[in-house]
Amino acid sequence: MNPDDYNSHGMLRLPLWFWAILVLQARTWLVFIMAGASRQQGDSLLSLLYPDRQSFWSGICLGLPPAIIFLLSGRRHSWPKVWQMSYWLLLAGMFITFALQGLGIWQSMDEPNVVDIALALLDAGALAYWLLSRRLRACFDEARRLI
Predict the structure, then answer these.
(1) d(CA 62, CA 92)
(2) 37: Cβ–Cβ under 8 A, 6 or more apart, which residues?
(3) How far apart are CA 88 and CA 64, in angstroms?
C-alpha cells in the first residue's frame, strides 16, 4: 500500500466504489428524501418508482444499514468492532436485495422491466466487488488491529 492510501488516523481510505455501493444500496432512502424535498410531486414520484408499497418498505428496511454505515464511516476508528461487523451486515443486505430482485423479475407476469434488470446487474456487480476487492476487505480488517 502507498502512504497516500491512509488518512490522518492511519487508516486506509475507503475506495470510491465503497461509496457508490452505499448509494446503490440506500437508493430507496435517496428517492424518499427527493420525494420529501419535492412536496407536490413527491407522491407521484414514489408511486412511479415504487408502484408496490411492499417493495418500497423492503427497500427502506434494506437501505437502513447502508445509510447508518455511511454516517459511521467517518468515525470508524471510534467503533472498530461495529465497523468490522458492518462488512458482514452490508454483505447480507446485498445478498437479500439481489435475491429479492431476482425473485421479482422471475415472478413478473409482464416482460421484465429494463430498470429492474439494470438494478439487478448493478447489484450483482456491487456484490462481486464487495467479495473480491482486497483493498475494501483490508479497510474493514484493519479494525481488528485497533481492538
Answers:
(1) 10
(2) none
(3) 14
